[in-house]
Amino acid sequence: MSTFRAVRIDKTETGTSAQWADFDEAELMDGDVDVAIKHTTVNYKDGLAITGKAPIARRFPLIPGIDFSGVVEKSSSPQFKPGDKVLLTGYGVGEGHLGGFAQKARVKSDWLVPLPAGLGMDEAMAIGTAGFTAMLSVQALERFGVKPSDGAAVVTGAAGGVGSVAVALLKKAGWHVIASTGRPQEAEYLKGIGADEIIDRAELSAPGKALGKARWAAGVDTVGSHTLANVLAQTKMHGAVAACGNAQGLDLPGSVAPFILRGVSLLGIDSVMCPMAQRVAAWTRLASDLDRSVLKAMTTHMPFDKVMDAARDIMDGKVRGRVVIDVG
Ligand code: NDP
């Protein structure tokens, strides 16, 4: 096929607009591997790109979609051959390079991860950047040395994509998991994927004290702002918190008290430019540790033509867990 269907973001006088378009293969950007996309997904960043609520698009026209899985069609790289199953997350794809809300992509072979053994292409997108980020967060906590015998682990934004996978992975690793959510109606869902306790996100989202009662030894925070400040202020002596998101805000309005009086550590998580060796290790562990029935319970499948609706829904906090978009 010389043309393919995709979502196209253009610059307008007032911002950006997103619509369906037919692209010509000649419009694809530089890369040594062509991939027939089978599945993509919707991450928070895709919601920002489609709605134009943050300047995610860094070239125009842009095909959004920061993740995809698919089959190699053409390759001039010795690393991949036609028929290989691959996945891609991050590296600025769907931001500065044409992305995954399309039937086809041309990318650099250095950005592609061979699909781990035992993982379906749809399952890879059920995980996506969100689940990959959750795994990077859990691995960062483990590398730091905090362990389940030290106390509980809290997950904020627990009913979201990163949060849901973090709950499941922490439970699998033996933690007592405290899930913070603004959606009490999702309590049963959260317990089903591994939460031991549910707390209302209102307990953490307002301005709080410099130090509070120590409630957990570890945390995965997808929310930022006052929530992260309160999570830190309620972390036990020598505990650690992985900061990976900003659903409440980019600010961190707290104090140094947790760091200097309790020796708490804050671990930063970046999935976009994560080095390849760490990337492959995280995907390998996701393939082995993430219970498929739990992954299925947190995943909704949608057809390709619903991708923009799903991107708007994630901005409205209406998406539970993860969404897989079936492209081809
Ligand atoms: P989702 O929208 O799926 O989840 C975010 C969750 O945060 C929501 O489901 C909700 O959880 C909670 N939330 C939303 N708004 C607020 C608010 N105002 N105050 C408190 N809680 C709120 O997004 P993702 O899981 O895909 O991404 C989560 C965050 O992680 C985003 O900020 C995203 O940009 C970031 N991210 C960072 C990455 C990195 O490389 N560091 C990679 C991937 C994502 P609930 O309903 O349970 O309260």
Structure write-up:
The longest helix has 24 residues, at 121-144. This protein is an alpha/beta fold and 328 residues long. It is globular, with a radius of gyration of 20 Å. The protein is built from 10 helices and 15 strands. The strands form 3 sheets. Strands 3, 4, 5, 6, 7, 14 and 15 form a 7-stranded mixed β-sheet that branches. A 6-stranded parallel β-sheet has the order 10-9-8-11-12-13, with helices on both faces. The protein has 2 domains: 3-115 and 298-326, Medium-chain alcohol dehydrogenases, catalytic domain (Quinone Oxidoreductase, Chain A, domain 1); 129-268, Rossmann fold (3-Layer(aba) Sandwich), CATH 3.40.50. Helix 7 (257-262) links the parallel strand 12 (235-243) and strand 13. Helix content is 30%, strand content 27%. Residues 43-45, 129-130, 133, 157-163, 181-183, 201, 205, 222-223, 227, 244-248, 269-272, 314, 317, 319 line the site of NADPH dihydro-nicotinamide-adenine-dinucleotide phosphate (NDP).
List the helices and strands and how they pair.
Elements: E1 3-11, E2 16-24, E3 33-41, H1 44-51, E4 67-75, E5 85-89, E6 104-107, E7 113-114, H2 121-144, E8 153-156, H3 161-172, E9 177-181, H4 187-193, E10 197-200, H5 202-205, E11 216-221, H6 225-233, E12 235-243, H7 257-262, E13 265-268, H8 276-289, H9 292-297, E14 299-303, H10 307-315, E15 322-326
Parallel strand pairs: 8-9, 8-11, 9-10, 11-12, 12-13, 14-15
Antiparallel strand pairs: 1-2, 3-4, 3-6, 3-15, 4-5, 5-7
Helix pairs in contact: 1-10, 2-3, 2-8
Bound molecules: NADPH dihydro-nicotinamide-adenine-dinucleotide phosphate.
NADPH dihydro-nicotinamide-adenine-dinucleotide phosphate binds at residues 43-45, 129-130, 133, 157-163, 181-183, 201, 205, 222-223, 227, 244-248, 269-272, 314, 317, 319.
